Amino acid sequence: MMWDLKKFSGQTAVITETGEEISYDRLFELTESLAGAVNRRCLVFCLCSNTLGSLIGYVSFLNHGVVPLMLDAHIAPDLLEHFLTSYCPDYLWVPAERAADFEGEKVYESCEYALIKRSDENVYPLYEELALLLTTSGSTGSPKFVRQSLANIKANTASIVEYLKLDSTERPITTLPMNYTYGLSIINTHLAVGATIILTQATLMQREFWTLFTEQGATSFGGVPYTYEMLDKLMFFRRKLPSLRTMTQAGGKLLPDLHKKFAEYAGREGKNFVVMYGAAEATARMAYLPAEKSLEKYGSMGIAIPGGKFRLIDDAGAEITTPETVGELVYSGANVTLGYAVCGEDLAKGDERNGVLQTGDMAKFDADGFYYVVGRKKRFLKIFGNRVGLDETERLIKSYYTGLECACAGKDDAMYVFITDAGKTDELKKFLAEKTHLNPTAFHVKALDVIPKNDAGKTLYRELEKFYD
Amino acid sequence: MTNLEKYTNAFVEAFDVDAETAKTLKYQAIEAWDSVGHMGLTAALESAFDIMMEPEDIIDLSSFEKGKEILSTKYGVEF
Questions:
Q1: What string of DSSP letters covers A77-139?
Q2: What is the pLDDT of residue A137?
Q3: Which end of chain B is more exposed for a tag (fewer CB within 10 A), N or C?
C-alpha cells in the first residue's frame, strides 16, 4: 500500500475545480470501490487529466498492486494504439465521455471516469516489484517507459516531504499534468501527509486558475522553466497571493536571471522558492536548493535530496573531488528506478540499475558543495519541461519520411529541425507537434541547401548553430 | 489590412489554423491553444497592434471574441 488514507479521516483530500470537497474517508471509499472492480494485479492504461476521476484511478491502482501506465488524456490516437498493441493492458481507465471510443466492455464508472475491460488478460508477466509506468518525458511521444517500484516511490516521497517540510496544512494547486513525473510527485507527497490537493485543468494563463487559487487559498505550486517565464510575463510579482508559501521549480534549468528574480521576490514577500533537479528515471527528485540558499546560490540545482548521493565522474571514469571541475553527474539512492520498458516483455524485467543513475548531465560543484548543471553528455533538449532526444526525433522523422535529409538541434524550449526539402517545412512542424504532443511553437523547421557533414558523413551540429534565430 | 484582419491573422499564425476556424476559437478548444500557445498569441497581438497587454487582460483573453472586446475597450483598437 502506498497511502494510508484512513489515517487522515476527517480531513479534506481534494478540492475540485467546481469547489467540491472530497474527504480522505471519501477518497478511501472511492478508491476501494474501484479496486474491487479490478480485483487482481494487472496492467491498466490511465488516460490522465487533473480531475478527481483520474486521481482516484491512480491512487486506487497504486494502493492495490495494480500497475498503471500513465498517459495524457489527449494522447494522439495512433500513438495510443501503438502502446495498446505493444503492452496489451487488461483495463483502461478513461474519461467516461470518451468510453465509447475504446474497444472493450465498460465494467465500472466513477467520478466521470470509466473502467474498460479489454479482451486481453495478463498477456505480459509483471515483475513483482513493478508498481508504475511513466513516460520518460511527460507528454512526448517517446515510446519508452520508466519502470518504478513502490519502494522507489515511497523513498522519493519521504525525501521530498522531509526537505520541503510538508504537512497536512498544505494546499497545492495543480499546474502540471498527472502523467508527468513532477506533477505526480506533488500528488504523491501531499497525499502522504494528509494535505489538500486543489485539482484544476485551468492553466495559469486563465482567469479561472487565479480565481480558484485565491478562493481556495492555495499554498504552493510547481513549475517548469517555461512556467516561470509565463509568470514573469504575467508580472506575477504584482499579484497579491497571501496564501502562497512555496513555489517549486524543476523540469530543466531555469535561466539564472529568472532564478534570481524569483528568489528575490520570495525573500521580499516571505515565500519559499525551491529550485529542484530530477528525472523520471529517479522517480522524480534527486536534488533541491534549500529556499534559504535560493538567492545566494542562484543558478545552482542544489544538493542531493535526503537519502541520495551525487558523484561526478571524469572522462576516464574516475571520481572528481575538486570544486569547479566538470564531470558527468551520477546519482545513487533508493529512488533510482528499475529501468526502462520499450515493449510488453520488458515488464517482467527486474532491477537493472541497482540504485545508480547516470544522469547524462554534465555538472560541477562549488566550494560549498552546491551543484550546477553546465551541459549535457547526451543529445537532448528540455522542451517545456519534457526531455526530448534529438537523435530519437531524427529517427522518428526519417521513419515517416523515408529518404528525407534531416538534422535536429537547438536549445531548451526551441528545437531546430533542418531539412533540405523546402516544401516540407510546414508539414513537418505539424507532424512533430502531433507526434511529440508539444506545442508547435517549440519546433523551428528550416530548409538548407545542404546539411553540413564531415568526411565520415556525420552531421556537424555545431555548424547549424548559426541558423538559430 | 483592416484591424480585424490583423487581429485574425495573429490567431492564424499563433495556432496554424485558417481564418474561419480562428473566429470560433476558445482557450483549450484546440491543442495549440494551451498556455504555451497563449504566450505566442499574446506576443503576436502585441506586435500586430504595437501594444503591451496588461497581465489581467492576458488572463482574460479566453476566446477570439473576448480578445476583440479587450482590445477595443482597453487598447483603443477599433474593429
A1: HHHHHHHHHHH--SEEEEEGGGGGGSSSEEEEEETTEEEEE-S--S-S---TTEEEEEETTTT
A2: 60
A3: N
